[in-house]
Specification:
By secondary structure, the protein is mainly alpha-helical. The protein has 2 domains: about 1-55; about 65-125, no CATH class. About 55% of the residues lie in helices and about 10% in strands. The chain contains 4 helices and 5 strands. It has helices spanning about 15-55, 65-70, 85-95, 115-125, and strands at about 65, 70-75, 80, 100-105, 110. The strands form 2 sheets. The protein has a 3-stranded antiparallel sheet. The protein has a two-stranded antiparallel sheet with strand order 2-3.
């Protein structure tokens, strides 16, 4: 808040100019900060997109694969090998239009890679 003239109890012109310049500087600092944050976020988003475009995902011949390999992980930007979301994956499992997973432990569920490969091959034959 601007200081007041002690003798008259009013703000002088110089006080008003100083206050205006202080507020202007604070506004500039805020704009600089906002632009910096926006630039950082743009780099992170573009970096994730670049990763998604160049990353090659391979399905193992045998063994088990987790959901994140099948449908990807939105948080890390990792793509999956299937062209649908986790919700659709589980909807298809319930509808028996995708292989059922195997429960490996209380908190670990995975799909047999062989079953997923057979399903992918069948989808390719249906499209042909």
């Amino acid at each position: 808040m601007p200081s007041t003239c002690k003798s008259e109890g009013r703000i002088t012109a110089q006080d008003a100019v100083d206050e205006y310049q202080n507020r202007l500087e604070i506004s500039r600092q805020f704009v600089d900060f906002a632009e910096e944050v926006a630039a950082r976020n743009a780099i992170a988003v573009n970096g994730a997109n670049r990763t998604m475009q160049t990353q090659i995902i391979t399905l193992p011949q045998t063994g088990y694969v987790r959901q994140s390999l099948l449908v990807g992980d939105i948080k890390t930007g990792t793509p999956g090998i299937l062209p649908f979301s986790a919700s659709t994956l589980w909807r298809r499992v319930r509808a028996k239009s995708f292989p059922a997973p195997v429960r490996l432990s209380e908190r670990v569920t995975a799909w047999k890679a062989e079953d997923v490969r057979r399903w992918l091959d069948a989808q390719g034959k249906e499209a042909a």
